[in-house]
Amino acid sequence: MSRLVVIVAPGSRGDVQPCIALGRGLDGDRVRVLAAERFRTLVTSHGLDFAPLSADPAEILGSDGGREWTEGRTSVTFLRGLRGALAPVMERLLADVHEGSAGADLVLAPTLGFLGAHLGASLGVPDVELHYQPSVPTGAFAHPLVPWAAKTGPCGRRLSFRAVDTVAWQVLRPEVDRWRERTLGLPSAGLRGPRRTETPVLCGFSDAVVPRPKDWPARVHVTGYWFLEAPAAWRPDPRLRDFLASGPPPVYVGFGSMRPSEAERTFTAVRTALRRVGLRGLLGTAAGAGEDDLLTIGDVPHAWLFPRTAAVVHHGGAGTTAAALRAGVPSLVCPVFSDQPYWGDRVFRLGAGPRPLPLRELTADSLTARLLELSGNLLFRRGAQYVAARLREEDGVARARQVLREVG
């Protein structure tokens, strides 16, 4: 008898796509993905069940609380900002998660509020944590949100993970504990939150990008990325197809969700820098119209697009970073918040791109300098191609499927 596997995916498209890829790979199981309503068609088009989460990540980031959250300059202000961003929607989000997980035999969820632990305890079923960045304590490196702890030695680095977990739980604990007691019929999880020492962890990234620390326990599985391929029937817009055919490979530039005023300022600088360096560009923005050397594009599968570019300039989301590395093209990361600076640093240390350029520091002059470095240093392309060759040897979905078959 097949299991009902519920995958909680409350984030952006970069969080939802790996969950779809993972769900498609669970042969013999029925899979239900919980995500924002805007992803309904994306999920169901791949043959998976869907249940909506009323909290939309784009709306959250665009709110006053969301802007304060993303503008946090330290890990503490970032985590505190999380509460302000989620407070208006947290009650609805928890209600949706509870309703959408009904009947589950297995729950897969990110670390946000330890949702999987609460649902598993309520339903009497196992849960598995999904990690899109390294989040298990180790002495090998610091938590991605606390990079300064790298200099504190193994004990300090290990403590950085405990600190992030503790602060994140305290930020969300009032709403989550109330939900546990009133809706799930569970006691308070207390100051420390649920114990997670035995819970299996699936890390949806590659050992080629983040080498697995030797002190991680056996319950932590670095499976490789869960890539979602472009649909077989997908075809590019004729404008994009003709633009790609009309000259040398362009540089793709995209930074995810941005406020209109911010996008206009940023992409004005991007256009100027690209023209100074003499590069053609694909701009992932609605701001502006197409020109001979620049083309604005909408939603195009990165798996199809990135191999056709000369380089990628992006915000450093885990999914976009993975897609650029897999394509074997160099990239420049312009991080905004969260784990994005961490992924930018990984790209640099892997030799697949220059040092990150924080988006708030992006100007026509600063980007021109980075583009000259990005396009002129052949070692970046060699570094990206080396990582890509290793990623092609992996099948993250197959490895994750093998682990999940042993759960429960």
Verbal overview:
Residues 295-389 form the Erythromycin biosynthesis protein CIII-like C-terminal domain. InterPro entries: EryCIII-like_C, Glycosyltransferase_28, GlycoTrans_28_N, UDP_glucos_trans. The chain is of the alpha/beta class and 408 residues long. It has two domains: 4-199, 3-Layer(aba) Sandwich (Rossmann fold); 238-392, Rossmann fold (3-Layer(aba) Sandwich), CATH 3.40.50.2000. Helix content is 45%, strand content 12%. It contains 16 helices and twelve strands. The chain has a seven-stranded parallel sheet with strand order 3-2-1-4-5-6-7, sandwiched between helices. It is globular and about 60 Å long.
Record keyword descriptors for this entry.
16 helices; Rossmann fold; seven-stranded parallel beta sheet; 408 residues; five-stranded parallel beta sheet; 12% strand; alpha/beta; 2 domains; 12 strands
State the helix count: 16
The average pLDDT value, as a whole number, equals 91
Strand content: 5-15%
The strand count comes to 12
- The helix-and-strand class reads alpha/beta
Helix content: 40-55%
Largest beta sheet: what is the strand line-up? 3-2-1-4-5-6-7
CATH topology of the largest domain: Rossmann fold
User: For the report, how would you describe the main beta sheet?
Assistant: 7 strands, parallel
Low-confidence stretches: none
Q: Between the first and last Cα atoms, what is the distance in angstroms?
A: 14 Å
Net shape? globular
Please state the CA-atom Rg, rounded to the nearest Å.
21 Å
What's the architecture of the largest domain, going by CATH? 3-Layer(aba) Sandwich
Write the element-wise H/E pattern from the N-terminal end onward: EHEHEHHHHEHEHEEHEHEEHEHEHHHH
CATH uppermost class of the largest domain: Alpha Beta
Number of discrete domains: 2
CATH superfamily caption of the largest domain:
Glycogen Phosphorylase B
